[in-house]
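Annex B. Sample input.
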Amino acid sequence: MVQTDSLTPKLNAFDLSTYLAERRQRVEAALDQAMPVRYPETLYESMRYSLLAGGKRLRPILCLAACELVGGSVDLALPTACALEMIHTMSLIHDDLPSMDNDDYRRGRLTNHKVYGEDVAILAGDALLTYAFEHVARYTQGAEPERVLRVIAGLGKAVGGEGLVGGQIVDLASEGNPDTTLDTLNYIHNHKTAALLEIAVTSGAILAGASDDQVSQLTDYAQRIGLAFQIVDDILDITSTAETLGKSVGKDITAQKATYPSLWGLEESRRQADQLIELAKAALAEFGALRQPLLAIADYIVARTY
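Annex B, continued. Sample output.
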């Protein structure tokens, strides 16, 4: 039997804005509850400063949507959804450090290290990362233990040398290199960006008991929206404003980073992103009406460029 809750979207009149707002509210409340201030207060205040700074909450929402897609519930996937946001927040804190991308603003306010110092920011990121795994293990209820173990292993792979960290180090090594190839750029962003989006989608489905074929189809969907997401980010770094994005713009050019627009130009980058989104949606063809949130989120990703 398909599990539902009061937030399950009415698919005959699906409204993405309403869906995202409802899911975001649910995630925000769970994150607030998961991260109270305790001793040592400075550490937890720093963690909460970035964790509760808002944002799209796209990764946890994808996790919840994928869980519901194959018959699970929001409650089943919520601890993993929160863990994904903790890991993502860690990556933002560390990415903003002077030794990385050296950013002063994130989500419209000063970055963590600008408020708490580099030492505290590094430790806050470390604490968020490690607590994410504890949170999944301790608070996931109603899933078979083997499925929880698969999710924990997948999270570890997505954030480690085969995922986010591996992509980040190749990204750093490629700065200022005018000969960076498309293959290298794809490697960077398939690992640095798409890997966490992939585990966001597949973890929700795994918790709900998805078949291997379903996980494979959702992997295809997630990898394609992940790469499209990065192409759009590269475009926005050129075309948008700091006020709109809530973070610095033009920093890719300043850092002499290879980007999709630098290789393809803006129009071809938009075309490639659109093509990836169509392929992503095609990967969901065998799912039923409950795929609507994932389809709409895919369209939303490229709509940010226009």
